[in-house]
Structures are given as structure tokens and as C-alpha cells.
Amino acid sequence: MPLKPILTALAALSLAGCARAETLPASPVPPGPALWKVADEDTTIYLFGTIHALPPIVEWYDARIADALGRSGEVVTEVPSGAVQDQQSLDAIGIRALLPPGENLRAMLRPGQRKLYEAAMAKAGLEVDAFDRFEPWFAAMTLSIRPLLQGGYTVDSGVEKTIEEKAAGTARRNALETIDGQIAVFDALPRKSQIAFLMAAARNVDTLVTGMDAMVAEWLEGDAASLAALMNEGLSDRVLADALLYDRNRQWAGWIERRLDQPGTVFMAVGAGHLAGRKSVQDLLDDRGIASERVR
Questions:
Q1: What 3-state class would DSSP assign to 39?
Q2: Residue 27's pLDDT is what?
Q3: Alpha-carbon gap, residue 21 to 83, rounded angstroms
């Protein structure tokens, strides 16, 4: 598989809910993707959980979402619109993904890990040595993405692209992070956590598409707790969970608290795994004394 499509997919899907989360019991809600809002006297911030890649046939954009987006003078996503097509961003991913000279990915694996990894690479239609020069997180992301692309999932059908297209042209665009910043999270992970991520991807390579189908079904039903359980199962490494999920949730809760000091209406669209389960953005807002409510 050529490197550029992999880099583009990594940029688009890099931090899409791949750490484990503890979930709360779901409460009765109407069907449709979950939508919350946080508000004070002069500010409303809608919180919408996204799926970064979807099959083209999935229909999810409904009147609730259209109304909230239409009211918003600012649209906030995880990374800037169009960033995944930026060649400089793709080059930065490729540079960060390389191992230091003389190091080899398969050489750092234990015999059982190497056997599992090589079998997963073969199942994904990749040469077993394809990522010998790359860090474990890059191989893990590739093994997580390739079956989805083969199974009909596309970034072009993902939620963020539709939100960008449907939002008013006059709405201000903002982002919580950068592509390089997101990739830096992976690059800074301890080697042990990277390998744990890789082994989880290798173990699940056969069931990624059916698992993703189940996640999309729960997302369409608006069952945030069940979605969190599905999206985040399989990785128990605490360092990975903190870096990819909980630390970022805390940062985003802080961003929301600060944004409430400015008047206006904001539509904030981030990976659905961040808005469900314990230590979700809403939980962390509640810890700050900021209430969120589910929008029907």
C-alpha cells in the first residue's frame, strides 16, 4: 500500500477513540447521534460526537443537528479543516513515524508478539517487513485503518467533512489541536505502550470492520454508553488511555470553560469516544461546576 494514502488516513483518524473507557449506564434517549449543549447567559456550546470515517451509505444528518449547526457562528473540530490534505502535515507524520537508524520494529517484539504481528500483516494484505523501519504506533494505526478502508469506510464520508460542508460560510472555523500535535502524542508514548497498542490492533484485525459496524449502529441510535464500551475496548494500557483520551478530555473541558467567557454559539464536533463514558468531557465539565444537557 503506498505511503501517502496511509498517512492521509492516519491524519484523519489518528486519535479516534482507541483507548479503553469505563462506561456509565445509558439513559433513555431518542434515536439519532448524540448531541449535548453547555450554556450560560450569553453563550451556547453544542457538543457533537463524530465518527471520523463512515461508509457512504450511512445517513445521520438530521433536523436536530442541522438546527444546532445553523445557529452556530463558530465551528470547532479536533484539527483544522483541510489539514489532512496538507502535504507538510503528511511529511511530518512520515518523519515522526520513522525509527532511529539501526532499529527494527519486528526485532523489538518478543517471539509471540512477532508471530501475532506478522500474521495480522498477512491478513491485511501487507508484506510482513513493510513497517520494519517504522515505530510501533504507526504500524498499529495502519493495521487499524487498512481493513476499514478495504471494507468501504472513507474519510470523505466522515462526519467532519459533512459538518464543514453544511456549516454556514460565514461561521468561524476553529480547532482544538493540530495534526502534528496529535501525532506527537503517539510519538511520545513509551515503547511499551506503543507495542501494547500494536498487539491490540493485531489481535483485532479480523474483526475491525464488524466491530466498526457495531459502533456506527450504536452511534446512530444515540446510545453513548454502549458506543463508548465498543469504541474503547481492547486496550487496557493506562498510559495510552491517558494520553489519547483522558488528558485530551481535560484539555477540551478547559477550552470549553474559557470559551463560555465569550458570547456566541459554538458547534463543537469531536470523536464520539470523548463524549461518553467515565472521564468524558461532560464528566470533567461537571467537575468544574459546568452542567451539560442532552439535546433532543
A1: strand
A2: 40
A3: 28
Helix (H, G, I), strand (E, B) or coil at 134: strand
Residue in this structure with the C-alpha cell 495502519, named with its chain if needed:
142
Spatial separation of the C-alpha atoms in residues 136 and 109, rounded to whole Å: 10
Among candidates 66, 10, 56, 57, which has minimal Cα distance to 33?
66
Residue type, 97: A
Strands (DSSP E) contained in the chain are: 35-39, 43-50, 74-77, 172-175, 264-271, 293-294
Single-letter amino acid, residue 185: V
Beta bridge partners of 54: 154
DSSP letter (8 states) at residue 86:
-
What's the rounded Cα separation, in Å, for the pair 253 and 281?
6
Q: What is the pTM of this model?
A: 0.88
Q: Which cell numbers in the block locate residue 89?
A: 502535515
Average pLDDT over residues 145-155: 91
User: Can you tell me the distance from the alpha carbon of 33 to that of 62, in angstroms, rounded to the nearest whole number?
Assistant: 9
Tell me: the pLDDT tens digits for 195-248?
999 999 999 999 999 989 999 999 999 998 888 777 666 556 889 889 988 999
